[in-house]
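Marked as duplicate of an earlier ticket. Keeping the data here for the record.
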Amino acid sequence: MNNRNLIIEQEGSSFPGKSYAELVLSPAFDEAKAQLLGPMMAINKAHLIMLVKQNLVTEEQAQVLADAIGKLDLPALRKATYTGEFEDLFYQVEHMLLELAGDLAGNLHLARSRNDMGIAIYRMTLREKLLSAIQAAMYLQDILIATAVEHVDTVMIGYTHTQQAQPTTLAHYLMAAVDMLGRDLRRLVNAYRNCNRSSMGSAALTTTGFAIDREEMMRLLAFDEMIENSYDAIAGADYVSEVAAAVQLTALNLGRMSQDLLLWCTQEFGAIKLSAAYVQVSSIMPQKRNPVSVEHIRSLLSSCVGNTQTVISMLHNTPFGDIVDTEDDMQPYAWKSLALLEQICRLLGNVIGTMEVNKEVLLGRAQESFATVTELADTLVRTEGIYFRQSHHIVSSVVRKTLEMGGTVKDITLEMINEQSQRILGRDVTLNQAQLEQALDPVHFVQLRSLTGGPNPQEILRMAKDRRQKLKDVQAWYDDTKKKNETALVYLEERMISWQTQS
């Protein structure tokens, strides 16, 4: 037996081939019945309502079709397995409607294609998953704001290039995370708006010769806009890559923060202690409190990034037209990334909201650090009327000498400053002991930095109030959007029921 005959014997000679069904059609069917059936039914209902309005289907025919739609056994469909009898879920549903309504069911497909319908289904599916992720990101941001407010006086060292830099507060760090997440939220909301556009009425590619109402379909399905150009409606896939990009940036940003949390959990750093609900013990070492929840967060965020990169990679260099590359194979990766992001945001919010912060250790470390000497240099500029670069030379020389002596910032004295001042300025400084101690106090350092965006407690509270209002604005948009989507589905169902009771 030659290879061709062997393949035919193993695969079959009619559609679908066994390996094709196993690799592509069966997994796509399983995803479709779990994810796409709801939007598919909504589009069937909306299309019927529009066809009646445009006098393309009569009221009597609508009653029969609505009754058939109502009799579809959706729970059984969701449990069905792929048999190869039908190419996909769309054709299986169409066959079931034909059995229930006869040839009349064919008119439900009047003036539409699987192309415009499929894109609309994907967009409706994606928008709901986006809303869930946005809600979870808002939850995390709310916890970050609340935790920041609790720690406006928690002084700690800020780092640049992983080295001790200047005193700041935990609140200052957390508010930076709030703003980072705020940008992520804006990107996710913008991605939603570009996603929530209707392709219906584009048909296969060039619209249709029937006098349908594309704008009515847009309204019935709770889309915000219509994709005007019918070719773009079918060919454009940047709505899903934009979602992937927004999710990817969010995951990357949260990954950077999770890395810091893991560092802060170490005994050497000793900054935070996670709740017992989020740590595991060692099987051999009794002292261990392993912060595995954050480790999982970090690794799952990387997985999230991987899923989004898969979306972008699958879209790369595909033709600008209707093509399966942007459909069944690619869409699940976007869904997975959104589902992961949603769960991670909720878990991370819970971890941060319940962690204990060792304020004393953080303050003590700041008090022992040379991180305050920037303020000493600034103070010399104020008290001595000298240029900052002169002041910088004096202080850096003092720090270098202190380090050579094995000392800490507390070992800096007026005598040491005067020694370097004589060398650089040719005179002693007028700085007194009280001013020196104040300049090296990390709490004073933080209090003094009250410019917009600084770590001063009152400035942090101002920012927190502003960010809460911005979060409320996003929440209001979310509530309105969710209600709009739900109201549309309710109307579609009520309209079907009104025809069904007349049939």
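See parent ticket for discussion. The mean pLDDT is 94.
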